[in-house]
Amino acid sequence: GQQVMQIPQYQHVQEGEDFTTYCNSSTTLSNIQWYKQRPGGHPVFLIQLVKSGEVKKQKRLTFQFGEAKKNSSLHITATQTTDVGTYFCAGMKVIQGAQKLVFGQGTRLTINP
Amino acid sequence: NAGVTQTPKFQVLKTGQSMTLQCAQDMNHEYMSWYRQDPGMGLRLIHYSVGAGITDQGEVPNGYNVSRSTTEDFPLRLLSAAPSQTSVYFCASSSHGGGRNTIYFGEGSWLTVV
């Protein structure tokens, strides 16, 4: 189908713990983007992954794109209260002959200080 | 640059009323789109435009109209508001469509239909 599945829907951690969100598609993705949305805010672009098996890091954030280009993950090491928000993946898929960006449902991260 | 500007930020409508959500971008982006965000549903594409004079339907277009008379502006019209259209609406733009480039989102418009 058109969906890009993202799990978990919610995650609550203690400050300092790690956090991971996963994105899965039944069909191959041309690329995948990750966005962060702070509470009450708008989605803000974090990164784009294009190559099979690609791994990119931004400070405590590690992004991976699966070998088959059907899944991706975002891992945050040692969470801080500034990491609070909802993380969305968005995968580019061919739908009805056209390339379209499909967003996952998002993972809402809350942190206990 | 202001980026992507949406108005209004908050709106309450009565069922059956019509209204227009305004969106403007000053980045000379060809691709503009409207999303709605509902709890547990993520972002769903309503309509999009790949350039002035060209619009197309997204995943959830029913009840909404769009037009793109200029590169800068992409208004979203609710023809006859229904409670199911209570949502947060985001306008977005990028230099190319289909996810090849970063999408820039407006700050959102919170719409309640009573």
Description:
The complex is a heterodimer of chains A (113) and B (114). In chain A, the strands form two sheets. In chain A, strands 2, 4, 5, 9, 10 and 11 form a six-stranded mixed β-sheet that branches. Chain A has a five-stranded antiparallel β-sheet with strand order 1-3-8-7-6, with no helix packed on it. Chain A has no helices and eleven strands. The model of chain A has no long low-confidence stretch (mean pLDDT 93). Chain A has strands spanning 5-7, 10-14, 19-24, 32-37, 44-49, 55-58, 61-65, 71-76, 85-95, 98-103, 107-112. Chain A is globular. The termini of chain A are far apart. Chain A is mainly β. Chain B is mostly beta strands and 114 residues long. In chain B, 0% of the residues lie in helices and 51% in strands. Chain B has no helices and eleven strands. Chain B has strands at residues 4-7, 10-13, 19-25, 31-38, 42-51, 54-57, 64-66, 76-78, 87-94, 104-105, 109-113. In chain B, the strands form two sheets. In chain B, strands 2, 4, 5, 6, 9, 10 and 11 form a seven-stranded mixed β-sheet that branches. In chain B, strands 1-3-8-7 form a four-stranded antiparallel β-sheet, with no helix packed on it. The radius of gyration of chain B is 13 Å and the shape is globular. In chain B, 37% of the residues are buried. The mean pLDDT of chain B is 92.
Q: Which word captures the global form of chain A?
A: globular
What is the oligomeric state here?
A: heterodimer
Strand and helix order of chain B: EEEEEEEEEEE
**Strand residues, percent of chain B:** over 45%
The helical percent of chain B reads under 10%
Task: Label the structural class of chain B.
Answer: mainly beta
Overall form of chain B: globular
DSSP summary, beta strand count of chain B: 11
Task: Give the amount of beta strand of chain A, in percent.
Answer: over 45%
Structural class of chain A: mainly beta
The SSE order of chain A reads: EEEEEEEEEEE
Give the mean pLDDT of chain B. Answer: 92
In whole angstroms, how far apart are the ends of chain A? 39 Å
Helix content of chain A: under 10%
Low-confidence segments of chain B, ≥5 residues, pLDDT <50? none
Task: Please give the count of helices of chain B.
Answer: 0
